[in-house]
Amino acid sequence: MFNDPLFYVSAVAVLIVAAILMVGIGGFAKGGEFNRKHANRIMRYRIVAQLLAVVIILLFVWLRGEG
Description:
The model has no long low-confidence stretch (mean pLDDT about 90). The chain is an all-alpha fold. Helices cover about 90% and strands about 0% of the residues.
């Protein structure tokens, strides 16, 4: 499993989602001008990245599943 490139692609996709989420949460916590300008856009990016991550994970499970 750990020698599979698709596993690493899945892990990177999850890390990207986590990074976008942390930026969004940090913006909400700090508030101010950054939050007003970019909060909705960052959360839209998170939703798209999360969709891609789920698709990649499902693809990994489907292609590498046994049975």
